[in-house]
Every structure is written in C-alpha cells, then in structure tokens.
From TrEMBL:
<dbReference type="GO" id="GO:0046872">
    <property type="term" value="F:metal ion binding"/>
</dbReference>
<keyword id="KW-0575">Peroxidase</keyword>
<keyword id="KW-0408">Iron</keyword>
<keyword id="KW-0479">Metal-binding</keyword>
<dbReference type="GO" id="GO:0020037">
    <property type="term" value="F:heme binding"/>
</dbReference>
<feature type="binding site" description="covalent">
    <location>
        <position position="248"/>
    </location>
    <ligand>
        <name>heme c 2</name>
    </ligand>
</feature>
<feature type="region of interest" description="Disordered">
    <location>
        <begin position="113"/>
        <end position="132"/>
    </location>
</feature>
<dbReference type="GO" id="GO:0009055">
    <property type="term" value="F:electron transfer activity"/>
</dbReference>
<feature type="binding site" description="covalent">
    <location>
        <position position="102"/>
    </location>
    <ligand>
        <name>heme c 1</name>
    </ligand>
</feature>
<feature type="binding site" description="axial binding residue">
    <location>
        <position position="321"/>
    </location>
    <ligand>
        <name>heme c 2</name>
    </ligand>
</feature>
<feature type="signal peptide">
    <location>
        <begin position="1"/>
        <end position="17"/>
    </location>
</feature>
<feature type="domain" description="Cytochrome c">
    <location>
        <begin position="80"/>
        <end position="185"/>
    </location>
</feature>
<dbReference type="InterPro" id="IPR026259">
    <property type="entry name" value="MauG/Cytc_peroxidase"/>
</dbReference>
<dbReference type="Pfam" id="PF03150">
    <property type="entry name" value="CCP_MauG"/>
</dbReference>
<dbReference type="GO" id="GO:0004130">
    <property type="term" value="F:cytochrome-c peroxidase activity"/>
</dbReference>
<keyword id="KW-0574">Periplasm</keyword>
<feature type="binding site" description="covalent">
    <location>
        <position position="251"/>
    </location>
    <ligand>
        <name>heme c 2</name>
    </ligand>
</feature>
C-alpha cells in the first residue's frame, strides 16, 4: 500500500521526476525505506496526488513535515532551572583548566556550532567527529551522531568528563568545584527546591538539558507549513519539490527535517569513512556506518558537514547525498534550488 502510494506520488505529482532520466531506478533503490517515511495518513494520499503538478499540496507536506511547536518545555514554570542551565552551558569552570565551556564548541551566537571540521578540547586535542548544533537538538530521537545518549539531559554529562573535551576527572570533582561558588549554591537551591543537597552531578545535566529545550529556531518554512504560501519564494518552493521528489525527504523529515531515524551513509553508493557509527554502540553488522540522520534546520549556517566535518560546502554535501544515498548524479541547478529551500530552514531570530 505505502509503496503504491509513494509511486503515485513520484509519478503523478512532479513533472520534475518525469523529466529526469532514471526516475524508476531512483524509486526502486528507495523502496526498502518507505516503511520509515514519516507520519501522515496514508489512506488520504492517493487521490489528492493527481493533477498537482507544480503545486506543493498540503497533504504531501503534512506527510513529510511538521512545524516546530511553540515550545517543548514550560519556560515559566522552569525559569530557575533554565537560567541555571544557561549559566552552566556558558561556564568554562566546568572544564579542568577553566578554558572550555559547552559554548566553545556549540556557540549560541553562531547557530550552535564552532564552524570547524572537528573541535579542539581543553588541551587543543580534537576528537574524530564534527560538533553538531545544539539548536533544536532536544527534538532528536537521541543524541550524538550515533545516538548513544538518550536525551539532552543525559548527553550534557558526557563532555564534562570527556578527557579530550572538558577533561574533568570525576563527577565528584565537578560537584566539589561548583559547591565552592556561591552563585551556584543559590541557583541550584532555586532550581531544585525540594532537594536537600541540590548540587548533584545529575542535576547539572537536568539544568543544561532544560536550557537546551528552549533552543528552538522557528523559520520561514514553519510559516509556510502553517499556511503562509508567501513565506517561501519560487526558487525555494522548487527546491522543496525537488527535495521531496528526489527522495531526500524520505530520511530528512519530521519536525526537525531529520533527527528522527538512523541511516547508513553510502546506502546506494558506498561512502569512504573509518567511523563505523552506531556499530560501535550496538555491535550489529547492519549498523556499520549508520548514523543519526542529521536535522537540516539552520543547515546553511552549520558547516562543515557530515560526521567527520570532511565536507566543506553545502553544495558538496547535497551532491554527495544525492550520489551516495540515492544513486543520482545531480545538476548544479538541482543543487542551487535545494540549497535555496534549505536556506528557508534558518531560524528567524537567534536567542
Ligand atoms: C570540545 C568540543 C565540545 C564541547 C566542549 C562540548 N561538545 Fe557537545 N559535541 C561535540 C562533538 C564533537 C559532538 C558529537 C560527538 C559524537 O557524536 O560522538 C557533540 C555532541 C553534542 C550534542 C548532540 C547533538 C546531536 O545532534 O546529536 C549535544 C546536545 C551537545 N554536544 C551538547 C553539549 C553540551 C551541553 C556541552 C557542555 C556540557 C558540550 N556539548 C560540550 C563537541 C563538544
Ligand atoms: C537514506 C537516507 C538519506 C537520504 C535519502 C538523504 N540523506 Fe542526507 N543524510 C543522511 C545521513 C545518515 C546523514 C549523515 C551522514 C554522515 O555524516 O555520515 C546525512 C547528512 C546530510 C547533510 C549534512 C548534515 C550535517 O549536519 O552535516 C545534508 C546537508 C543532507 N544530508 C542533505 C540531503 C539531501 C539534500 C538529500 C537528497 C539529495 C539527502 N540528504 C538524502 C541520510 C540521508
């Protein structure tokens, strides 16, 4: 059923798909993944697809995407917790030599990234992976490129003790350090009112996580999804059509345009990387080179790209994706249109 409806979508909706050669091949190569397409009421799709040339109909859009919610945490009720989390996020005293904060690698005034392929830690040493943005990260199914932390609260406790990131030796050392700072005594007490001894390592994660839950970046694309047809220009709309018809939206979908599934890099055409991704967590052969599909919100601002930061430009990232994930060679016009659409995912205001 789903496969049939997807065929209907591919063949009837977009003149683009018909004018491209090899559109059948593209469909076959994708067919194993339809079951993971996002949400939507599949029964409604068939009929409405017909005759929708050049039009991005609401049902197709709803099938793939969802606008950002206004909020995912009660910011009033949790004001003290969030204020504490923000302070911790920005505080280099969470690192062994008081030089590195979360914000060093995930800069809030730079779309949550440091714009480097990999990031230097407290001794200048770099890990093997690119720093993903913290903006909208709380929406993901799990955290890290390989999904090894279940949420932002758990994730935040990792880098503080990571020897090449913030380099604190033990959680008790971090707690001891914070207990000597009066401002933290007050702020932890306010944020964790019911707790006798509120400065606990786990509470650092809770506070930072609460703060990260406020880092949502509504964009023009959200306005478009909510019905403002003028929120995107014609090039951006064409790019969105191509993004869907080419198959990008099979993986990059949902509220974060990604972040909600794991997929292999090099699904169709093998991709060269030493990083085995989720295999290192699960040990499953089928998880080799499998990564969390990244969110594409703010993507024009968060380069360099891919898990190792090896791809410098968004143009190149789009070309590589088309080739390795979909087995397609794309023209510069495709890249330009899709890139224009991706630009509409940039947050309108920065916190
Ligand atoms: C030295 C640089 C560095 C510092 C400092 C750092 N991070 Fe990260 N962060 C990274 C890297 C690199 C990754 C990806 C690692 C991986 O996937 O294995 C990451 C991943 C993340 C993610 C996952 C995002 C996603 O899309 O999966 C979040 C959230 C995050 N960091 C928040 C934090 C917080 C909160 C702090 C402070 C407690 C922090 N980071 C400190 C480099 C850093
Ligand atoms: C089969 C699933 C799948 C398909 C189809 C797919 N992607 Fe991806 N995409 C991924 C995965 C997985 C990654 C992470 C790869 C890595 O870093 O190793 C990724 C990464 C990206 C990145 C880099 C994100 C970052 O933060 O570094 C961009 C940009 C991107 N994809 C765009 C696209 C476009 C445009 C298309 C269509 C031409 C597309 N993708 C098709 C799964 C997919």
């Amino acid at each position: 059923m789903k496969v049939f409806l997807f065929l209907a979508l591919m063949l009837s909706s977009y003149s683009y798909a018909q004018s491209e050669h090899d559109s059948q091949g593209g469909i076959q190569k994708n067919s194993g993944h339809h079951n993971e397409m996002h949400g939507g009421d599949h029964h409604e799709m068939g009929g409405t697809m017909h005759g929708s040339h050049h039009k991005l109909d609401k049902i197709t859009l709803k099938h793939f995407f969802e606008p950002l919610p206004a909020s995912i945490i009660d910011e009033k009720k949790n004001a003290a917790l969030i204020a504490l989390g923000k302070k911790l996020y920005l505080d280099p005293r969470l690192s062994v030599n008081n030089t590195i904060s979360c914000n060093s690698c995930h800069q809030l005034n730079n779309f949550g990234v440091d714009s480097q392929p990999t990031s230097p830690g407290h001794e200048g040493k770099r890990g093997g992976r690119n720093s993903p943005t913290t903006l909208n990260a709380a929406l993901h199914i799990a955290q890290f490129w390989d999904g090894r932390a279940k949420d932002v609260e758990e994730q935040a406790l990792g880098p503080i003790l990571n020897p090449i990131e913030m380099g604190m030796a033990k959680d008790v050392d971090v707690v001891g350090k914070l207990k000597k700072i009066d401002e933290y005594k007050t702020m932890f007490a306010e944020a964790f009112k019911d707790e006798k001894d509120p400065i606990l390592y786990v509470n650092i994660g809770k506070a930072i996580g609460a703060f990260e839950r406020t880092l949502l970046t509504p964009s023009r694309f959200d306005d478009f999804l909510k019905g403002d047809e003028n929120a995107l220009n014609d090039t951006e709309k064409r790019g969105l059509q191509k993004f869907i018809s080419m198959g990008c939206a099979n993986c990059h979908n949902g509220v974060a345009i990604g972040g909600n599934s794991y997929k292999k890099i090099g699904l169709v055409v093998p991709y060269e990387t030493k990083d085995l991704g989720r295999f290192e967590i699960t040990g499953l052969e089928t998880d080799k080179k499998v990564f969390k599909v990244p969110s594409l919100r703010n993507i024009t601002k968060t380069g360099p790209y891919f898990h190792d930061g090896s791809v410098a430009t968004l143009d190149e990232a789009i070309e590589e994706m088309a080739e390795h994930q979909l087995g397609r060679k794309v023209e510069p016009e495709f890249v330009a249109d899709v890139k224009a659409f991706l630009g509409s995912l940039t947050g309108k205001v920065q916190k």
